[in-house]
Design a protein that fits this description.
164 residues; alpha/beta; five-stranded parallel beta sheet; 6 helices; 5 strands; 40% helix; elongated
Length: 164
């Protein structure tokens, strides 16, 4: 009879551990649902678009000329070398999505923001080069740059310093 009690006690322990594991997994799954933001770090295009829908602050860390050539609508331009000054006035609890041209400067920006105590910082993987959403420009058109299109409407290539 003693053996029977030992087996029963062992099975109870296994059942208790299994029930605790199932409860923990269920709790984690339910916490992940319900509109919570994903874990901070790199996000794909679809992840970035979901963050934008949730009202994340969008920060483009490219140069002013890169930003003017095309950026994600609603983004603010804070070149990487100016980030430390600009972020001083930001709320550290506000979620921030950073991006650059291909993802290297924005990784640096993400680290800077995380080191400064920002809680939710996201980096758009591969930058705007891989972005598949809308892009807007601050350019007023060809007249603003002084470059007029060719009569055919096709781009014109100019070559300088040619040894002819």
């Amino acid at each position: 009879m003693n053996r029977f009690k030992q087996r029963l006690a062992g099975r109870r322990r296994v059942l208790i551990v299994a029930a605790a594991a199932v409860a923990t997994v269920a709790m984690l799954i339910s916490a992940g649902c319900g509109g919570a933001l994903p874990a901070t770090g790199n996000v794909s295009n679809s992840g970035a678009q979901a963050l934008i829908k949730d009202g994340v602050r969008i920060v483009d860390v490219r140069t002013v000329s890169e930003f003017e050539a095309g950026h994600i609508p609603g983004a603010e331009n804070v070149p990487l070398d100016q980030l430390s000054v600009e972020m001083a006035s930001w709320d550290t609890a506000e979620p921030i999505l950073v991006y650059c041209a291909v993802g290297s400067r924005s990784i640096d920006a993400m680290r800077i923001l995380n080191d400064a105590g920002f809680e939710s910082v996201y980096n758009l993987q591969n930058g705007i080069a891989a972005w598949d959403g809308d892009v807007t420009t601050d350019d007023a058109g060809p007249a603003a740059t002084g470059i007029a299109p060719s009569i055919s409407g096709l781009p014109v290539m100019y070559e300088f310093y040619t040894d002819w």
